């Protein structure tokens, strides 16, 4: 379990994170959703012990993230491709495995597993600089799994990734969840948060604006659904909190319906309603 | 703990060897530098003589004999030509100086006791002070030969005395006392010389007249007895003894720049975050970097000195050399850490490290050897760590430093290294946290 208790971080005049508190259950995928500059990376950096909060506390299974025992349980997939591009995939994995002091037999086994997990076993001996962007992202993930961490922090792992690699990455996230890992996933793509996350925290300007499952957030902050009907009587659009009932009522008087659409609220509208701006502004 | 540090070192060395440019500037360029300049210095080591153009206005037997002496002298390489061309050759820089023997040169060259000293006209660029001094000294040396010639050959001496007695009798401007003294003395001296010639066996050479003594000529300016002594040579064994330490400095500078860039690159790539998240301390991370930089320096220095020993004939005291390598390594690892800590991008660290090290190299003797620098520049060079590193290497190679003398450069290098390393690591840790 991860407990984040009132953490804050300031850089000069910028309040990057402001009194943020979250609890994440073991085996959950938790999403931090917010636009660029919302404070997601700073939050994740404090959660995994890369930087110290000015105030507050982070506990991973009751321990601070900076201590050696906890570090063995943390896997970080940084936003950038944090690999040595001149080296081969194997050389990269071998180096990062050595940092975790894995015994030789376990090291070979984990390297093989990690490469297979991200589907790169055929490219093990190729230099990373010859990989596509998506392959680099997958190897970036593999390098973080060598020591079999319990907590996996993924900082915008799909940035600049092609759809095929993105889908492969989504599969990997679900597989990791199935293995009992606790995953913290930051993104500014609401589709990813909706698809992957058990719970989502919406952040903006360093503050946690809302917290809950996707359905809870939509129900609480999403507002009404938009219904659009095109019939022999013309076109009509209306907002409703109960689209099914309202639609049934409207359709009773019509003989021909040319077009009918129902736009339910989503995390985008949640964010819009919470901040007054689009998620990708 | 050591496993992670060694892994970091191995990874950095792998990265270094993957980068062809880094390998060139760390391993190949310093060797080329040392070999190229060493070869140039060694081929220009022997004096080939000052190039001079000579013109003979006098056209006498004596003037031609003097030109012959010039041609035979090892100090000169003589081109005999007309006066206009001689001047042109100097103006266009093809010859260092011209010498003109004016009319009357031969007459005065023969006059020992009377007349004027033989005059020669010399033309040289006033900026070439060193060559001018060398030229004047060498010409004076040849000038002395006319006395040697006159006093060592009795027949030549008789001719000189006849010429001088006649000249004195005809002279109007010589003071009466001098005229009387020489008019009385020179005829007697001529008689004595003729008497000595008469004593010589029939057909013998008139040179080396003994004047009654046991074979020595009292009229010679000096009697020089030569004894051959083999002087123990101090100084560099060959030019490579100078250029190899310079090459080593370039190699070390290459390592420093390469590793400073790689450390900053870890920050910009995000790999430093991966390292920081691993169960190793920040001190271990920085120690791994430092060890990698130090190992690369040690490898390149070993390579250069091995080549220098077996192929270029450079000899050194191994223990002192190892001490020099250690101290220089500590010093420049410190600089690597310092530069990596104060810069944010690869471009800025490359620019700053290059600029600093090249300036330090220039004033520290990595380009012009320390001993060849003017005094004021040698004083300035004290501020350069490059100077102390070169001094330490030279101390182990050809300066024959004692261990006490080695202490000065070694202590300075180590102190600089410790201070810069401490500041650098502190700043990096602060930035990370």
TrEMBL record, chain A:
Pfam families: ABC_tran (PF00005). It comes from the Bacteria. GO terms for molecular function: ATP binding. SUPFAM superfamilies: P-loop containing nucleoside triphosphate hydrolases. The keyword ATP-binding applies. Keywords: ATP-binding, Nucleotide-binding. This is ABC transporter ATP-binding protein. It comes from Kangiella aquimarina. The lineage of its organism: Bacteria, Pseudomonadati, Pseudomonadota, Gammaproteobacteria, Kangiellales.
UniProtKB/TrEMBL annotation, chain B:
Pfam families: ABC2_membrane_3. Residues 209-431 form the ABC transmembrane type-2 domain. The chain crosses the membrane at residues 247-264, 285-312, 318-343, 355-377, 406-424. Keywords: Cell membrane, Membrane, Transmembrane, Transmembrane helix, Transport. It comes from the Bacteria. It is found in: Cell membrane. This is ABC transporter permease. Coiled coil: none annotated. It is a multi-pass membrane protein. Belongs to the ABC-2 integral membrane protein family. It comes from Kangiella aquimarina. Its main location: membrane.
